[in-house]
């Protein structure tokens, strides 16, 4: 209401402005409406004009063009289409928007709609770049399946005849399965259009058996024509075709008895209407893969090679099980070591190695085919026809006049195939069979004829045969024989044989050129006939132990020298005068004994067999003497020993080495050996040699059938340690030595060359000694090594008397240490040592006593003065004699009363004059003043000696003293360092004291009495001298007391002639020439000092 009233009350000029604004808005609305109408008219005209012309081709021959229908026009619309290339052609199209097919080229197309208000013409420029190549939808001619291999076979026609020229085509094939159309395979396949219709095939093997689910296949193509410059597109997919399980199939599990490659993957499915509960391969459970309906499958990855019976796969349902068998194996290896040869040039045998086992047997095993390319023939071999232990081989018949063969061996099983080739000339690959019917026939004592049979036809080649000849207990001999090939029978002569020898023959053959030997034939033995022995027996001779008979020894001839069976021996001897023969000696006896004198005879021995007698063997009966002969030693090794000797040109026959066991009794003959005359060494080897046995070796040289001993050697093939210990005894004992004697060890017990003895000894009682351990390193065990083997005694010295010793003796050789033999011995008591042990201390004591007595006698004065000094008699002391006139009536005088005295200096004056003067020692009291000019008057050699006399204090009770005071007597130990100097004669009388008596040192003025000195109870009361008299009877106020004339003070005598505790000698020496010191105190050096007065 308010607004309305306000509007009513507006001024007029506001109303006019509003009216003008409303008129302007109306004009704008009018203009907008007109503009919309014009735009609509234009758009209507444009939509009614033909547009979006599209041209495609299917065969590159014609173009099919079309456009979109007019806006608002129905199917009954009509168009005028004019196509202008070189000429103009117009068509009237009713109810159609497709231009008739055009040939490839450059066009200008005009489309004019008829009977449409406001429509206009449309003009299009058309060339090949605006064309799209879209092939026609391909059609599948056939889709089949091989259920045994799960393979799909697809067949279709490419319709190449509709295309004008060659073009490349790419086909895309897709495989789907199950009802939900899952793509399992999408592949491309390339072909070429050749201008005519071609049927194409494509195969695909499914991982899953085809029976497990329905499989669908679709196809489309893409033409890649390099001459077409337009746009190329894929065709539409063809109609899908499918493969399903045959309705009459009773099998539930697929695949059945499948053979697959070990290590690969396989899918096994079960087609059933029942619900499958579980599935397993062998004993391993597998997860289920659900397919259409109740069908399931399992996926087995990297399957292992199966056993010969395969691997079971089982599906379990509620009340039943279904299953199949899977055979996992390998394809055959390339045949290895392919070899083709012939035994008889009639048939070729080819053998090979199959390589890795395939794990497939029976009908799935590998089959082999041998193909010969020149003849075109082949033979087959099936693996199931041979057991595992037999060789793989094929026989191929040789064609006449064909030597070279080209073989190809093919191996094949269900998983693959391989092959191996071989080119061979069969005449060079002949491996004959075993020769048979070997026979031997003797011709004479040194030759035989061998014959044998060899199956085969070898007329085209030469045979090379090898004959092995074996003699008894000897190495074999091989001989090669070349001969022409014959039908089957062959023979040859074998010569250079030994008479009366058993030979064993066998033979094998090959061809020339050589390829392989045949196997050896059976052996054939043959004994050649006898012949005259080739040489006489090996002889030797020895004189009997009594030297009367000569014994002849000979060795049986070996069979290769006897050339027959020896029947007997003929022994004869001859000299310059006569020749005698013994009766024939049978073959079993190989010695003869002759009674001969000491003349030289020639002994002859002849061996006989059925063919005749051998040449004689001769030897002289006597030896050539040799004075320069030494026995030597030698060592062997094992069962042999090496002997050497110097070359001697005089030895023309041979050398003979004879050896025997030296421990044997009787004639020492074991064996002998002959070596050529040009030899200087030989090795003697015998199975009869034993370690530790000594053998005697004798080397003889032959000269004109006479033998001379050149070397005599004793030796061992191996040394051993002695078997026993030497026997030893104690020959003599003393207090400090033992004499031991031992015996030699017998040779048979020594078992080696003696190198020495080891003698051990130590202290020890029987059953307590530890030397049985034989520890030479112990400090208490002493060892003596005796290397002089001729020594048989030993004296052990430096022993202790009356002591038990343990003795051990051992012998040693190069073979080691022998056993020990021990003994306990007690040495005798040493009486001389006991006497000496007693006498020596007594003598020493006597000597010491005598020397001590002499020294004491010479030093008696010194001893007396040191240990027992003279004590002065107090009665003779003048210091206690006082003058009565001086001391009377003076009660203040106090005898023997002194003040405490501290240590003072002792001043000693020396002069360098001849008559030295020693002044009195001055003791300076601490209360007295020392004159200052005293030091100036002192000579240069004034010596000040400082000493500290011990102070001994005593309190003397004096009943007569005033006030009951106590007097003190102080004893000072005065040490006199010097002896008094002698005075001239004029001064002797003026000295009141004089002589050698005691002279008071000084008078000490006492200024005051000593008060309150406490006596120490612990003080040594024996220090210093005590007055002899009773001190209580002394009268301090004595008239005889001396009084000092220098002062009026009280005078107390310092010291007493009898109160001396001197550590020095107070008696001056007798020598007055020099002022020597008396040597204060006792000294060890003074003990040996001689005084002039002694």
From TrEMBL:
Regarding the membrane, this protein is recorded as: Single-pass type I membrane protein
User: What InterPro entries would the database entry show?
Assistant: FN3_dom (IPR003961), FN3_sf (IPR036116), Hematopoietin_rcpt_Gp130_CS (IPR003529), Ig-like_fold (IPR013783), LIF-R-like_Ig-like (IPR048497), LIFR_D2 (IPR040817), LIFR_N (IPR040901), Type-I_Cytokine_Rcpt (IPR050379)
A UniProt-annotated Pfam family:
fn3
Where do transmembrane segments lie in this chain? 834-857
Q: Report keywords, A-Z.
A: Cell membrane, Disulfide bond, Glycoprotein, Membrane, Phosphoprotein, Receptor, Repeat, Signal, Transmembrane, Transmembrane helix
List locations, semicolon-separated: Cell membrane
Fibronectin type-III domain location is 434-531, 536-627, 724-831
**Predominant localisation class:** membrane
User: What is annotated about its quaternary structure and interactions?
Assistant: Heterodimer composed of LIFR and IL6ST. The heterodimer formed by LIFR and IL6ST interacts with the complex formed by CNTF and CNTFR.
Query: Which protein are we looking at?
Result: Leukemia inhibitory factor receptor
């Amino acid at each position: 209401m308010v607004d309305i009233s306000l509007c009513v009350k507006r001024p007029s000029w506001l109303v006019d402005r509003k009216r003008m604004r409303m008129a302007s808005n109306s004009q704008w609305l009018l203009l907008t409406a007109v503009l919309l109408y014009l735009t609509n008219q234009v758009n209507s005209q444009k939509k009614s004009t033909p547009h979006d012309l599209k041209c495609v081709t299917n065969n590159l021959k014609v173009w099919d063009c079309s456009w979109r229908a007019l806006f608002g026009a129905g199917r009954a619309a009509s168009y005028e289409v004019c196509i202008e290339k070189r000429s103009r052609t117009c068509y009237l199209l009713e109810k159609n928007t497709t231009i008739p097919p055009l040939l490839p080229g450059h066009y200008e197309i005009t489309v004019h709609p008829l009977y449409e208000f406001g429509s206009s013409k449309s003009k299009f420029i058309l060339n090949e770049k605006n064309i799209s190549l879209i092939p026609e939808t391909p059609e599948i001619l056939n889709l089949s399946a091989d259920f045994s291999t799960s393979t799909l076979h697809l067949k279709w026609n490419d319709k190449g005849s509709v295309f004008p020229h060659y073009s490349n085509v790419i086909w895309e094939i897709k495989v789907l399965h199950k009802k939900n159309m899952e793509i399992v395979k999408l592949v491309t396949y390339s072909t070429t259009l050749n201008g005519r219709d071609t049927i194409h095939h494509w195969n695909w093997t499914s991982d899953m058996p085809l029976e497990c689910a329905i499989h669908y296949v679709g196809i489309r193509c893409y033409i890649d024509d390099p001459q077409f410059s337009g746009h190329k597109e894929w065709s539409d997919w063809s109609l899908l075709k499918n493969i399903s399980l045959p309705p009459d199939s009773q099998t539930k599990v697929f695949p059945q008895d499948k053979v697959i490659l070990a290590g690969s993957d396989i899918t096994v499915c079960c087609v059933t209407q029942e619900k499958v509960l579980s599935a397993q391969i062998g004993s391993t459970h597998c997860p289920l893969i659900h397919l259409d309906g109740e069908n399931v499958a399992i996926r087995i990855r990297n399957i292992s090679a199966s056993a010969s019976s395969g691997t079971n796969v089982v599906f379990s349902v509620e009340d039943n099980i279904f299953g199949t068998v899977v055979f996992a194996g390998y394809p055959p290896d390339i045949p290895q070591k392919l070899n083709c040869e012939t035994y008889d040039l009639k048939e070729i045998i080819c053998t090979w190695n199959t390589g890795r086992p395939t794990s497939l047997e029976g009908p799935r095993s590998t089959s082999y085919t041998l193909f010969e390319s020149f003849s075109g023939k082949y033979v087959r071999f099936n693996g199931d026809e041979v057991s595992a232990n037999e060789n793989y081989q094929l026989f191929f018949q040789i064609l006449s006049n064909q030597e070279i063969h080209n073989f190809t061996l093919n191996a094949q099983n269900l998983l693959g195939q391989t092959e191996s080739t071989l080119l061979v000339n069969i005449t060079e690959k002949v491996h004959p069979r075993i020769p048979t019917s070997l026979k031997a026939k003797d011709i004479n004592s040194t030759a035989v004829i061998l014959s044998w049979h060899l199956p085969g036809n070898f007329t085209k080649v030469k045979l090379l045969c090898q004959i092995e000849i074996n003699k008894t207990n000897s190495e074999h001999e091989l001989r090669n024989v070349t001969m022409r090939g014959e039908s089957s029978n062959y023979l040859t002569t074998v010569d250079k044989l030994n008479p009366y020898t058993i030979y064993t023959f066998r033979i094998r053959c090959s061809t020339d050129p050589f390829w392989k030997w045949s196997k050896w034939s059976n052996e054939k033995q043959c004994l050649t006939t006898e012949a005259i022995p080739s040489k006489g027996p090996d002889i030797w001779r020895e004189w009997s132990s009594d030297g009367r008979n000569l014994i002849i020894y000979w060795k049986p001839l070996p069979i290769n020298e006897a050339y027959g069976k020896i029947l007997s021996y003929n022994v004869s001897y001859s000299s310059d005068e006569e020749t005698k023969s013994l009766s024939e000696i049978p073959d079993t006896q190989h010695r003869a004994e002759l009674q001969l004198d000491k003349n030289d005879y020639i002994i002859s021995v002849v061996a006989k067999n059925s063919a005749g007698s051998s040449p004689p063997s001769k030897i002289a009966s006597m030896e050539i003497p040799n004075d320069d002969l030494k026995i030597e030693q030698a060592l062997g090794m094992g069962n042999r020993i090496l002997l050497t000797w110097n070359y001697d040109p005089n030895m023309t026959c041979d050398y003979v080495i004879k050896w025997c066991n030296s421990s044997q009794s009787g004639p020492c003959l074991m064996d002998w050996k002959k070596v050529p005359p040009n030899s200087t060494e030989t090795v003697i080897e015998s199975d009869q040699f034993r370690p530790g046995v000594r053998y005697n070796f004798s080397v003889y040289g032959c000269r004109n059938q006479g033998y001379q001993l050149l070397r005599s050697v004793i030796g061992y093939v191996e040394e051993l340690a002695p078997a026993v210990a030497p026997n030893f005894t104690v020959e003599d004992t003393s207090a400090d030595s033992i004499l031991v004697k031992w015996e030699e060890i017998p040779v048979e017990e020594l078992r080696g060359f003696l190198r020495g003895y080891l003698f051990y000894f130590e202290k020890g009682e029987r059953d307590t000694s530890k030397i049985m351990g034989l520890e030479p390193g112990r400090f208490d065990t002493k060892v003596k090594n005796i290397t002089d083997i001729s020594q048989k005694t030993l004296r052990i010295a430096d022993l202790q008397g009356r002591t038990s010793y343990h003795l051990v003796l051992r012998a040693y050789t190069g073979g080691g240490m022998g056993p020990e033999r021990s003994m306990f011995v007690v040495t005798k008591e040493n009486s001389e040592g006991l006497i000496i042990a007693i006498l020596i201390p007594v003598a020493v004591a006597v000597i010491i006593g005598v020397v001590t007595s002499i020294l004491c006698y010479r030093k008696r004065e010194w001893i007396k003065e040191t240990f027992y000094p003279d004590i002065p008699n107090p009665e003779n002391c003048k210091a206690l004699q006082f003058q009565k006139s001086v001391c009377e009536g003076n009660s203040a005088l106090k005898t023997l009363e002194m003040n405490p005295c501290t240590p003072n200096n002792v001043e000693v004056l020396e002069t360098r004059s001849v008559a030295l003067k020693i002044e009195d020692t001055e003791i300076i009291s601490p209360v007295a003043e020392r004159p200052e000019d005293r030091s100036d008057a002192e000579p240069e050699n004034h010596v000040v000696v400082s000493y500290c006399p011990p102070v001994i204090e005593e309190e003397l009770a004096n009943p007569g003293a005033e006030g009951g005071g106590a007097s003190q007597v102080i004893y000072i130990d005065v040490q006199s360092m010097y002896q008094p100097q002698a005075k001239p004669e004029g001064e002797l009388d003026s000295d009141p004291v004089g002589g050698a008596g005691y002279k008071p040192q000084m008078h000490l003025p006492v200024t005051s009495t000593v008060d309150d000195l406490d006596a120490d109870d612990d003080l040594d009361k024996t220090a210093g001298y005590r007055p002899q008299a009773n001190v209580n009877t002394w009268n301090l106020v004595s008239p005889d007391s001396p009084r000092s004339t220098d002062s009026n003070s009280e005078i107390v005598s310092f010291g007493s002639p009898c109160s001396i505790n001197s550590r020095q000698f107070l008696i001056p020496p007798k020598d007055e020439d020099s002022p020597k010191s008396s040597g204060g105190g006792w000294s060890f050096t003074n003990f040996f000092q001689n005084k002039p007065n002694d």
